[in-house]
Amino acid sequence: MAVSNYQIKPLDSNNYVTRSTDIRFLLHEKNCFDIVNGKESAPEDKEENKRDLRDFNVRQRLALSILYLNITTEYRSIIEKVTDPAEAWKLLRDKFRPDNRSHHMQLFSEFFQCRIEQNERVNIFSTRIKRISYQLEAVGKPITRISVINC
Known about the structure:
single chain; 151 residues; 0% strand
């Protein structure tokens, strides 16, 4: 397996949204994200599934290691006794995801005040808009046609 050399800032009290996206893509690369989001579970422990079960267990341990090692040391205790990466992912989300009205309003405001800058390419501008939109989705407040009309 090739060694990846990514610069992902460890999770702290202020960077959950961007950090969770970075980790999600790293877990996708390692073929572990479906385990973390609960879409993949261990195959039955039968003789014909031994190889698949061993592969699943390796990827499950890798996913948990990625989650644990990408947290600042002061917060690692939140998941250090957890053995299921899906549970660890949920714990981290519940502890760190900004989930308050002022944060939502700040993101909505940033979205609606976003303007194309002089000499800015349209694709760069659209990337800024998408980033804000993804952040709103991550906190459970996606931009919809209704939210645009109601603001």
